[in-house]
């Protein structure tokens, strides 16, 4: 939005006995007396929004953030006029009167054409249906008699925010089609400013709006999201990204709340991105993870954003990477990603975080179960949660998983292979001097809070070691390239579906495949060939 908060305001009236409490004279009251404002905004649907407030700057910020007067079609974006009043009653009366004015009178108000306003007010025509401002100002008697409206002295208009307003709102209406189709670029800059500003409720709302914009499937919103991410990118990269995964019921949400409160006590700002599974039938998601973090969700140094998986495989949402960047740009130095309850193959979170933590239950299965879990191979740290319930079972699980991790080390796990190579290198050689992280297994109880300090000590050790040996930077570089190719794959798939040749052949080929008349592989090859031949 483009608000001009430094524009001169209309002078404050000294006497409320004048019509509507307005005056052209300079204020005679003490400067410490706070005035009341009536203002007029231009909206994206070319309508006018009229309101009153005792704090104009705060109200403009609320409009800008979308908490007042903002719908899918009516989006206030330009402050055209404002006037000051001594009393709230006077401001409310004038607000109600202007709301009932015709478009012509409001246009005249924007231009400062008071003669035209009075000329329109002297018209003998009855009031518009539903206009109640005359009852508030003059009473029901004038309404019944259809007397002309009385207009008193008006304040001088505030200069228009942009030069084209000098020529009147007609030019604005002509330019309106260029603004349709989404949020104006000016709003993007405002959203950027709110995100990178000091921590405040306004910043939290801006983060939420930015992530919603990122998750939108509209083409124009995606273009705006790309511009926003490009502007935010230089402010990212300073946080630590922690991915936490595990089977349903392992205690991920409880652990994250306990860990988050622990980190806040250490002086950190914590952002949590939780992924809830979407229904394969209805497509909906209850987004319930946040409700399990009651204390953390209300803390001013924490931000929790639940998102639906929307059918995305791997335990994360499609826009989780982008949401992480927004949180980093907002100053959150710890970003935690909680996946949906995963099984053995949901490993996408390991490809977008600095450290991947896998949570297990004490009775998670036998040695074979530990070995065959593909997600185990990528874990930097395995946590046995709920160790307080059965200490012996937790100890057995720790031993089984530790044994499985050693087996992975003999079969190409990068972390194990590098560490073992360094351990067997010749003393004093460069290879022997480089230290590598060996995945480890530990026990804790998120409910009781025991072991959380040891967990964070291990995370801090991992971060320091991976930063020193350059593995953290390399990991992020690979993740950025993987992100790019993932977006390319998504874009190509969408472009393929919209290709004219594909859309022409698709109904017939789909029918043949469904009827068993054509192999799916042949249909796919025909569609690919058609798209390639007509490119």
Q: Which tags fit this structure?
A:
10 strands, 4 domains, 46% helix, 535 residues, alpha/beta, seven-stranded parallel β-sheet, single chain, Rossmann fold, Single alpha-helices involved in coiled-coils or other helix-helix interfaces, three-stranded antiparallel β-sheet
Short structural description:
By secondary structure, this protein is an alpha/beta fold. 46% of the residues lie in helices and 12% in strands. It has helices at residues 56-65, 88-99, 103-111, 114-121, 133-137, 140-145, 169-179, 185-196, 201-215, 219-232, 252-265, 294-297, 320-329, 367-372, 374-377, 391-409, 414-423, 430-433, 452-468, 471-498, 500-514, 520-533; strands at 36-43, 48-53, 76-85, 240-246, 270-276, 302-308, 334-338, 355-360, 381-384, 440-443.
Task: Give a description of the structure.
- The longest helix is centred in the last third of the chain and has 28 residues, at 471-498.
- The protein has four domains: 19-179, no CATH class; 185-232, Single alpha-helices involved in coiled-coils or other helix-helix interfaces, CATH 1.20.5; 238-318 and 327-480, P-loop containing nucleotide triphosphate hydrolases (Rossmann fold), CATH 3.40.50.300; 499-533.
- The model is unreliable at 1-32 and 124-189 (pLDDT under 50).
- A hairpin with a 4-residue loop joins strand 1 and strand 2.
- The chain contains 22 helices and ten strands.
- With 535 residues, the chain is of the alpha/beta class.
- It is globular.
């Amino acid at each position: 939005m483009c608000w001009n908060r430094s524009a001169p305001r209309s002078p404050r009236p000294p006497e409320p006995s004048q019509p509507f409490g307005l005056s052209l004279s300079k204020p005679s009251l003490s400067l410490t007396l706070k005035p009341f404002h009536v203002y007029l905004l231009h909206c994206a649907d070319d309508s006018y929004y009229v309101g009153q407030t005792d704090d104009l700057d705060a109200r403009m910020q609320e409009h800008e953030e979308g908490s007042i007067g903002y719908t899918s079609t009516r989006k206030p974006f330009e402050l055209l006029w404002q006037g000051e009043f001594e009393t709230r009653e006077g401001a409310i009366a004038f607000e109600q009167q202007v709301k009932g004015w015709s478009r012509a009178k409001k246009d005249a108000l924007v231009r400062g054409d008071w003669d035209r306003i009075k000329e329109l007010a002297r018209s003998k025509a009855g009031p518009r249906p539903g206009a109640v401002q005359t009852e508030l100002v003059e009473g029901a008697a004038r309404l019944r008699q259809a007397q002309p409206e009385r207009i008193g002295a008006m304040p001088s208009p505030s200069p228009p925010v942009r030069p084209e307003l000098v020529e009147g709102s007609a030019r604005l209406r002509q330019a309106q089609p260029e603004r349709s189709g989404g949020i104006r670029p000016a709003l993007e800059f405002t959203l950027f400013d709110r995100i990178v500003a000091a921590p405040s409720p306004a910043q939290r709302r801006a983060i939420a709006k930015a992530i919603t914009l990122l998750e939108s499937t509209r083409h124009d919103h995606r273009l705006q999201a790309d511009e926003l991410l490009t502007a935010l990118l230089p402010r990212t990269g300073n946080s630590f990204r922690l991915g936490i995964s595990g089977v349903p019921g392992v205690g991920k949400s409880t652990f994250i709340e306990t860990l988050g409160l622990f980190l806040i006590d250490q002086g950190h700002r914590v952002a949590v991105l939780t992924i809830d599974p979407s229904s394969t039938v209805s497509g909906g998601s209850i987004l319930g993870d946040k409700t399990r973090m009651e204390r953390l969700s209300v803390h001013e140094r924490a931000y929790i954003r639940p998102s639906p998986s929307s059918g995305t495989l791997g335990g994360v949402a499609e826009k989780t990477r982008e949401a992480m960047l927004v949180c980093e740009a907002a100053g959150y130095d710890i970003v935690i990603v909680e996946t949906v309850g995963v099984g053995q193959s949901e490993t996408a979170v390991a490809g977008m975080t600095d450290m991947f933590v896998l949570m297990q239950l004490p009775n998670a299965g036998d040695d074979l179960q530990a070995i065959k879990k593909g997600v185990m191979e990528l874990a930097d740290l395995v946590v046995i949660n709920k160790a307080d319930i059965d200490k012996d079972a937790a100890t057995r699980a720790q031993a089984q998983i530790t044994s499985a991790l050693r087996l992975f080390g003999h079969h190409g796990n990068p972390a194990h292979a590098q560490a073992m190579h360094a351990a067997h290198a010749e003393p004093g050689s460069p290879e022997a001097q480089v230290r590598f992280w060996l995945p480890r297994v530990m026990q804790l109880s998120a409910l009781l809070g025991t072991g959380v300090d040891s967990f964070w000590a291990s995370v801090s050790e991992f971060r320091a070691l991976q930063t020193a040996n350059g593995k953290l930077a390399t990991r992020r570089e690979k993740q950025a390239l993987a992100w790019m190719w993932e977006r390319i794959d998504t874009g190509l798939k969408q472009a393929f579906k919209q290709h004219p040749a594909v859309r022409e052949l698709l109904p017939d080929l789909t029918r043949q495949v469904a009827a068993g008349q054509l192999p799916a592989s042949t249909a796919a090859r025909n569609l690919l060939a058609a798209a390639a031949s007509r490119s």
